[in-house]
Every structure is written in C-alpha cells, then in structure tokens.
Amino acid sequence: MSIKPTAETFQGVLVDADAQVESFRQTRISRRTELVEDYVELIADLIADGGEARQVDIAQRLGVAQPTVAKMLKRLAAEGLIQQKPYRGVFLTAEGSELAERSRERHQIVESFLCALGVSPATARIDAEGIEHYVSTETLQAFKSYLNNPR
C-alpha cells in the first residue's frame, strides 16, 4: 500500500486557523507534562526493581545532574505525585502511580506499534519515548486496534 501526498494533504494548503491553534495548544500541553511523566515512570521502574528510587539513581538514569533532579522532585511533591522520605528515597503517591501506569501503557503501545511496522526494537524504544507524550487518545486507540487486528 502506497500513500502518495496530494495537494489537499500536504502541499500549499493552509489549515483552518482554529485547527492550527488546537494542534499547537496540544503540543504545548504535552511538552509541559512530558518531564513529569518521564520522572514518575522512572521512579515506578526503580521502585519495582529495588524497592525505592533514590535521587542519585534518577539522575544517573536520566543523564542529568542531581540538583536538576532535586528541583523536579520538589515540583512532583508539590503536585502530590511523590513523597520523599529522609535518608530513604522517593515514593509515588496513588496519583503518581496512576500517572506512571498510564504513561508506561502509552509507551508500550507506541513501541509495539512501531515494531509491528518493522522498526527495530532498539529504535522503537527510543522513538516511543518521545511519541508517547504527544500521541492523542484517538491515535493511541488506532494503534491498539491495529495491534489487536493486524491486516
């Protein structure tokens, strides 16, 4: 199956202003939540692996400095997504756990979809890390439907 771009789909057609505003609005919202989702998903993974998530481990896994992690952890605590315990680590609240689970599920769907298209597992994992934050509910459902009933 070959999809050929047409003038109506890609070239020379300015989309409706309201539609364009909505697409940019959705992208800005996704950008704001992307880091939060990455942090809670990683914290959940670290807790599942070793019983707790330490600031030093989060910094190492994300490839950022510990002060960067400390600043984000304050934000996550203020948003009610984590609890920090002195001399222990970081733990997710019920709300943080739910967010981590939703983010992980989106990631798995996108990664599986990319693999089903023939993308290598390594590339699919990397690409899914970005796409998962921006994919709409409608598109995610289409990915799931395709995975459940490939043509």
Automatic annotation (TrEMBL):
InterPro entries the record matches: DtxR_MntR_Metal-Reg, Fe_dep_repressor, Fe_dep_repressor_sf, HTH_DTXR, Iron_dep_repressor, WH-like_DNA-bd_sf, WH_DNA-bd_sf
Keywords: Activator, Cytoplasm, DNA-binding, Manganese, Repressor, Transcription, Transcription regulation
Keyword DNA damage: no
Methyltransferase recorded as keyword: no
Alphabetized Gene3D superfamilies for the sequence: Iron dependent repressor, metal binding and dimerisation domain, Winged helix-like DNA-binding domain superfamily/Winged helix DNA-binding domain
GO molecular function, one term: DNA binding
Record localization: Cytoplasm
GO cellular component, one term: cytoplasm
Pfam families linked: Fe_dep_repr_C, Fe_dep_repress
Broad class of where this protein is predominantly found: cytoplasm
Domain of life assignment: Bacteria
Domain HTH dtxR-type: 32-93
Function: In the presence of manganese, represses expression of mntH and mntS. Up-regulates expression of mntP.
Family classification: Belongs to the DtxR/MntR family.
Subunit structure and binding partners: Homodimer.
Protein name listed in UniProt: Transcriptional regulator MntR
Species assigned in the record: Sinorhizobium saheli
